[in-house]
Amino acid sequence: MQADAPELSRVVEVVNLPPLGETVTVTADQHECRLVAKRLQLVALHELTARLAIEPWRKGGWRITGIVHADIEQLCVATAQEFRSTCSFDLDRHFLHEKDRYDQATEVVIDPLSDDEPDVIAEGRIDIGELVVEGLALTLDPYPRKPGADFEFEQSQSGQEADETKPNPFSVLAKLQRPE
């Protein structure tokens, strides 16, 4: 595996796709799960599967839709305990060849409320494995919490007393004040 190769690669050659598209299943093996877990900074990735439909879209483009399921183990940000959970999410991406993405005769207008721009079909290929990993990365909570976990800061009695006996920083200013 090359250093810049995706951890989960399932390349589809668009010229080999049937005219009406096809349905594919992507399942990560144990080695790929370990690599994806490392990339996404998970404690472990126990399972990663996707059932995807690849269908024709526009002239020469493709739409990939489906559902992805992951069984993950993360570190709780509140308790620093490992916990296991599952997540499922829908995947919906569009692909066009570079030459078909923009009509050179028209001005490009970007609408911030519209769907994302279609991705590029690079060298006639789409890596659906990388799509699955990207989708998982975007779905994961950046601050995962174990169910029921609550961060509580307990301050000792002696700590509270120490705070009360600290000198007031403005008391120095009061001493500098001149009598009128």
Structure report:
The protein is α+β, with helices and mostly antiparallel strands and 180 residues long. The chain is 23% helix and 32% strand. It is built from five helices and seven strands; from the N terminus they run E-E-H-E-E-E-H-E-E-H-H-H. A five-stranded mixed beta sheet has the order 2-3-4-5-6. Strands 1-7 form a two-stranded antiparallel ribbon. A hairpin with a 6-residue loop joins strand 4 and strand 5. The protein is elongated. The termini are far apart. The model has no long low-confidence stretch (mean pLDDT 84).
Layout of helices and strands, plus pairs?
Blueprint: E1 11-13, E2 22-27, H1 30-39, E3 44-57, E4 61-75, E5 82-96, H2 98-101, E6 119-120, E7 125-127, H3 128-139, H4 157-165, H5 171-176
Parallel strand pairs: 5-6
Antiparallel strand pairs: 1-7, 2-3, 3-4, 4-5
Distance between the termini: 82 Å
Strand order of the largest sheet: 2-3-4-5-6
Strand share of the residues?
Answer: 25-35%
Level of helix content? 10-25%
Q: Can you tell me the residue ranges where pLDDT is under 50 for at least 5 consecutive residues? A: none
Task: Offer a few descriptive terms.
alpha+beta, 5 helices, elongated, 180 residues, five-stranded mixed sheet
Write a brief structural summary.
Helix content is about 25%, strand content about 30%.
